[in-house]
Design brief:
181 residues; alpha/beta; Rossmann fold; six-stranded parallel beta sheet; 7 helices; globular; Isochorismatase-like_hydrls; Isochorismatase-like_dom
């Protein structure tokens, strides 16, 4: 039976430190609890690379400088403890911006018979935008939780949520989505 899944994307320690505050993590944790209570699977997506960053080309504008900036020990960049996965929650590792790029997300979703993705994460102009576009191209129904996405640029965040995303997804506050569960 097809179903929806909540994707919690790039809500990792170092990313939260750069883009969000404690209220975002607390609100997202409430949404994760509501999804679990309604039987909606929660899938975590994290960006990570092997030691030495062999997946990163120096031509990659977003990630190309990472190996040079990260000389020495790699930081612990797991899912933020405020929204940590529970035992049995899938954690998908991606190698690029989209949750689908360099990951087994599509295979996992097919096996779970998921046909509707509910997106949350950091950043709206990064993982949320890229994942939404690819999910729409793969014929998933998509909902974006407008208040469970964060971006460094409030104007870009607003334009994406009000003008770009509605062409391919339903955009709604988390409490509205939770009332439908």
């Amino acid at each position: 039976m097809p179903q929806q899944a909540l994707l919690v994307m790039d809500v990792q320690r170092t990313i939260v430190e750069r883009y969000a505050d404690a209220s975002y993590v607390t609100a997202l944790a409430d949404t994760v609890r509501a999804a679990r209570a309604a039987g909606v699977p929660v899938v975590y997506v994290v960006v990570d690379f092997r030691p030495g960053y062999p997946e990163i080309s120096p031509r990659n504008k977003m990630f190309g400088g990472l190996p040079a900036r990260s000389a020495g020990a790699r930081p612990d960049n797991g899912v933020h403890p405020g929204v940590a996965p529970q035992e049995g929650d899938p954690v998908v590792v991606k190698r690029r911006v989209s949750a689908f790029a360099g990951s087994d997300l599509e295979l996992l979703l097919r096996a779970m018979e998921v046909d509707h993705l509910v997106l949350s994460g950091i950043a709206t102009s990064g993982v949320v935008l890229s994942t939404l576009r690819q999910a729409a191209d793969l014929d998933y129904r998509v909902t974006v939780l407008s208040d469970r996405c964060v971006d460094a640029d409030p104007l870009v965040h607003d334009v994406l949520l009000t003008r770009v995303f509605p062409t391919q997804a339903e955009v709604t506050p988390a409490d509205s989505w939770q009332r439908t569960l």
